[in-house]
Specification:
The structure holds two protein chains of two kinds. Chain A is of the alpha+beta class. Chain A contains 21 helices and 28 strands. Chain A has a domain at 456-600: Aldehyde Oxidoreductase, domain 4, CATH 3.30.365.10. In chain A, helix 19 links the parallel strand 26 (623-633) and strand 27 (690-696). The chains are: A alpha+beta, B alpha+beta. The interface between A and B is medium-sized, with 24 and 21 residues.
Chain lengths: 752, 295
């Protein structure tokens, strides 16, 4: 693992860039950490949810009378207990949380019970009688777009097309991006390749199921503990769904056992609150793994057509893609991001992408790490690989020839500032991995990937304690090591050791609004807020020193954890340490704290190049990943071990997505593999050690140059692995996952 | 739910015979406890056989090995003599679930759970293993392939349970092997599997063979025709030189593939399983041949 410098002059860091122990490590390995299901309260009830066994059905009636009468049952809720909210953005969430007129997918919640024990709750579910009228269903994206497909929502009219359609369809919205003249570009091309690709839906596969404890008081005040990527979002959405004032509900985020985007919305939390309100007692609700698969938010399945033309020297003259993503039972698939990111790695004169957001009888998708981008990259980077091979050019060389760089007008609009794509390509070209020989039935693939990254609303509070230690309160659940990174940045700014800072995730009443932990925003945005809060605290500490020394505040500087006189003219005073200033705070003006409330702008985009070697068993189609290297721009790696972990995690999830993970639906529209046995995320021996190379091309939008790193790492793997498998199998694989039956079939058809 | 821990096999059989309604035997519990947790209706009676000393031991008997019904597969893996005589059976038992699961899971339980994809069963069928069944009155011995009658169903009568599995004495120059196909490297269920046991003469010619296929039918399939294709050959003739002995190779592999009766499901397509079970049978035969001392 190597850290490679970029050309820009960089600040010398003392703490940032080191690899101290993670602050949550001991708790997690000793079992002291409290996850969603670990929170309990006196008098607590246990809740279970009754779910639709049908992919699409009208709910004619729900009879709960026999369940209510069962001793030990304290509350039953159905659609009648949820009023459709006024806020338009909450309507679909409300319908997803509890089915109304129709059940729209296998697993859609229909009723819920709170009882004194799980056993009683289980028995109560059996006593609820739901009368369904089963309707025709559709789960495939292409089938859902056909003229006579079963319609999910009679009122749905496709947005983004002119004239506005007057008939209902399953296409919720059309998006278009691009510039130049694509037709002219194709006319100028010497070689044009057109291909179609499909990817199956995958689940984020977080190990911790959704879990919460809800407690509603008779006075209308409520508390909720849950595992989430954004408790402020949970508070606002739940308050909206339950008709509460936002500040009456306090939400505390538990430790979180993985999210990857899947915990950026609500599923069970409003149900638990409604049950608690009805029962007058705390209610714990924990999803089973089966429920997580059937009724949380996997990502979209997709179908994409790509057409790229190049001249005989390998310069791309035009590029076009049509992307169709199904996002489950409600609009909002990430096809827009797919269409925006598809060609972001290339400097193109003529480019156009069109995306269709499609609804089907599947659970509503939720974000999954760089939502929408991996499937698009799979399609585009497969064709790029083929183009390079067509003219006998090294695929890295081909990408360098066409790569986006500073000043490139991106395919989705903005013009790029300093970016690291070229650096990752050059680094990968000279890496030992690229030069290593391959054996029989083996293939090597490369692919590039891009993600926007995000900033957003952020609020932190940094308190200097009287003994010179520091407490930082932030409002973003730590899914990727952010507490360690915040401690590092606060320590760097204040000039104290890492160990002197403790970062906690405060509840929703302690801080102003914080956006969800998503968009790889936290190390960037919360980091920036932390630095600002530390600087504010430093100003106060300088003022306190000035007061003690009786000199103007301008005559005091902060260096390495000490207030010092700015120069000889300021007088000769012994520098005062942070601890000394903190100790005297009571007599110099009271507590010392820094705050930051801002909407963080300037998140730097990030690029990666992945390189992977695979071996394909010619007799069974089984793919073994032999070697994997990630090259990615981190801007500045605050805690390099965590950055490497993000690189490796994205690649690992990509391996699963590429080779074995898929939602399998039966003819009846029911999910066939709602468990980790037949939904195959990689197990440890399925993966080689994933090697990483961190590049640091500073982001001008962050004081330390930080770019988000969490999502870019899952964008290239699908394509890189597909390119490697295609090379090893001798046939182009266009349908993910490349499971053994699919690969074997492709090879046998290719032979025949 | 009544939970009993009898100390003799006869007592266990009596409890089962006297049960009103469904009764279940608890050995390692790696199937039963999972089924109970995933919503199976609890049986009225659970009989834990781990308190029956004879069922908890591996014993040498007439040159073979008697494996008690409550012996976990991890113990089979640690038994030097057993591993030497029947490496294929021991490997198959060592593929069930995970390391933790193998600390509890038993091959008798694997057999009586009657899953067509059970890992240890094709290996035991190929090995010619015999199950000893104890009933309220008497014991009887039957070949293991006669236990499962279909997915989740066995030929055991009310009041009967498997007491032990007997692996017979090995003639010299014998070897066995088991291979399964799973999409990942571990913690998975076979999409197709094959167990092969061979005995060679001094010249390396196969004189006895048993070939069993798993996960490609409602129960494990013993393919006698495939065994016949191996007998009388040196396997390098059958397997090795594709160009010259192409017919013999495709004979054996095709016989296995043709014997398969797989279904299409989430774990694999019919055509995939049919092809792959032939591949596995070929590869397993080669390993068994080498273990038998064939070169």
């Amino acid at each position: 693992m190597t850290d490679r410098g970029a050309t820009m002059t960089k600040r010398k860091f003392k703490v940032v860039g080191t690899r101290p122990l993670r602050p949550d490590g001991v708790d997690k390995v000793t079992g002291r950490a409290r996850f969603g299901a670990d929170i309990s309260a006196p008098g607590m009830l246990h809740a279970l949810i009754l779910r639709s066994p049908h992919a699409h059905a009208r709910i004619k009636s729900i009879d709960t009378s026999r369940a209510v009468k069962l001793p030990g049952v304290k509350a039953v809720v159905t659609r009648d207990d949820f009023k459709l909210p006024q806020r338009e953005d909450l309507v679909d969430i409300c319908r997803n949380v509890m089915a109304r007129e129709k059940a729209l997918y296998d697993g859609h919640a229909v009723a819920a019970v709170a009882a004194v024990s799980k056993a009683v709750a289980r028995e109560a579910l059996k006593r609820i009688k739901v009368e369904y009228k089963v309707l025709p269903h559709v789960t495939d994206v292409d089938a859902a777009m056909k003229p006579r497909a079963p319609i999910l929502h009679r009122g749905l009219r496709t947005q983004g097309v002119e004239p506005k359609p007057d008939k209902a369809s399953n296409v919720a919205e059309r998006h278009e991006f691009g510039h130049g003249d694509v037709e002219k570009g194709f006319a100028e091309a010497d070689i044009v390749i057109e291909r179609s690709f499909k990817t199956e839906a995958t689940h984020q596969g977080y190990i911790e199921p959704h879990a919460c404890l809800a407690s509603m008081g008779t006075d209308g005040q409520g508390d909720l503990w849950c595992c989430t990527q954004g408790h402020f979002m949970v508070r606002n959405v739940c308050a909206g769904l339950l008709g509460m004032e936002v500040s009456r509900l306090r939400v505390t985020a538990s430790e979180i056992g993985g999210g990857f985007g899947g915990k950026t919305t609500v599923f069970i939390e409003p149900v638990a609150l409604a049950l608690s309100r009805k029962a007058g007692r705390p209610v714990k609700l924990v999803m089973s793994r089966d429920e997580v698969f059937r009724a949380s938010g996997p990502t979209s399945s997709s179908s994409t057509d790509v057409k790229i033309g190049m001249d005989k020297n390998g310069r791309i003259t035009a590029a076009e893609a049509v992307l169709r993503y199904q996002g489950g039972a409600f609009p909002g698939s990430p096809v827009q991001f797919g269409a925006m990111t598809a060609f972001a790695c290339y400097d193109l004169a003529n480019v156009r992408t069109v995306g269709y957001d499609v609804v089907t009888n599947r659970p509503k998708q939720a974000a999954y790490r760089a939502p929408g981008a991996p499937m698009a990259a799979f399609a585009i980077e497969s064709v790029i690989d083929e183009l390079a091979k067509k003219i006998g050019m090294d695929p890295l060389e081909f990408r360098l020839l066409n790569a986006a760089r500073q000043g490139t007008k991106s395919s989705y609009g903005p013009t790029f500032g300093p970016i690291g794509l070229e650096a990752t390509l050059k680094e990968s070209k000279s890496h030992p991995h690229h030069l290593a020989p391959l054996g029989p039935n083996q293939g090597r693939g490369v692919a590039c990937g891009f993600w926007f990254n995000f900033g957003g609303q952020t609020c932190v509070s940094l308190n200097i304690s009287e003994d010179g230690t520091v407490c930082l309160s932030e409002g973003n659940p730590d899914i990727g090591g952010s507490r360690a990174s915040m401690c590092l940045m606060a320590a760097e700014e204040l000039g104290v050791p890492y160990e002197k800072v403790r970062t906690i995730i405060a509840d929703t009443s302690a801080l102003g609004y914080n956006e969800v932990t998503d968009g790889s925003r936290v190390t960037f945005a919360v980091g920036m807020a932390t630095i600002k809060a530390a600087r504010q605290a430093i100003e106060i500490m300088c003022a306190r020193a000035a007061k003690i020394w009786d000199i103007p505040v301008e005559a005091v500087v902060w260096e390495d954890g000490y207030a010092k006189p700015a120069g000889a003219n300021a007088g000769t005073f012994e520098p005062m340490s942070l601890a000394e200033i903190a100790e005297s705070a009571a007599s110099t003006g009271g507590p010392i704290a820094g705050h930051s409330e801002a909407d963080a702008d300037g998140a730097g985009v990030s690029f990666a190049t992945h390189m992977v070697d695979v071996e394909v068993d010619p007799d069974t189609g089984k793919v073994t990943v032999l070697r994997y290297t990630v090259f990615q721009d981190a801007g500045k790696a605050v805690h390099p071990a965590y950055v490497e972990g993000q690189f490796q995690g994205g690649a690992a999830q990509g391996v699963g997505w590429a080779i074995n993970e898929e939602y399998i639906y039966g003819e009846d529209g029911r999910l066939q593999n709602a468990g980790f046995l037949d939904y195959r995320i990689p197990v440890a021996p399925d993966l080689p050690m994933i090697d990483t190379v961190i590049l640091e091309i500073p982001n001008p939008g962050h004081p330390y140059g930080v770019r988000g790193v969490g999502e870019t790492s899952i964008v290239p793997p699908l394509a890189a692995i597909a390119n490697a498998v295609s090379a090893a199998a001798g046939v182009r694989l266009t349908h993910l996952p490349m499971s053994p039956p699919r690969v074997l079939k492709a090879m046998m058809e290719n032979e025949a | 739910m009544r939970y009993e821990t009898p100390e003799t096999a006869k007592a266990a059989a009596k409890l089962l015979l006297g049960a009103k309604g469904p009764a279940k035997i608890l050995a390692g519990g790696t199937d039963l406890l999972v089924q109970l947790r995933s919503g199976m209706k609890p049986p009225g009676l659970v009989v834990d056989i781990k308190h029956i000393p004879a069922m908890c031991a591996i014993k040498k008997e007439r040159g073979g090995f008697r494996i008690g019904a409550a012996v976990p597969s991890a113990e089979m893996g640690e038994h030097a003599g057993l591993g030497k005589a029947w490496p294929g059976v021991v490997e198959a038992a060592g593929l069930i679930g995970s390391t933790q699961v193998q600390g509890r899971a038993t091959v008798a339980g694997n057999l009586c759970n009657a899953s067509p994809a059970a890992d240890s069963v094709p290996a035991m069928v190929a090995a010619g293993a015999v199950a000893r069944i104890v009933g309220p009155r008497k014991r009887r011995d039957i070949p293991v392939e006669k236990i499962a009658t279909g997915p989740g169903k066995t030929s055991l009568k009310k009041g009967e349970l498997v007491e032990s599995i007997f692996l017979p004495k090995r003639p010299p120059r014998s070897g066995d092997a088991y291979l399964r196909f799973i999409p990942r490297t571990e913690m998975d269920i076979a999409a197709a599997s094959a167990g092969v046991s061979l005995t060679l003469d001094r010249k390396g010619v196969c004189i006895d063979a048993r070939v069993a296929l798993g996960a490609v039918g409602p129960r494990v399939i013993l393919v006698k025709r495939a065994a016949k294709a191996l007998i009388g050959t040196r396997l390098e003739d059958v397997m090795g030189v594709l160009a010259e002995f192409g017919d013999a190779l495709s004979d054996y592999q095709n016989i296995c593939a043709a014997a398969a009766r797989p279904i299409d499901d989430k774990r694999g397509t019919k055509e995939f399983r049919t092809h792959v079970v032939g591949v596995l049978a070929r590869r397993a035969a080669l390993i068994a041949y080498q273990r038998a001392g064939g070169k």
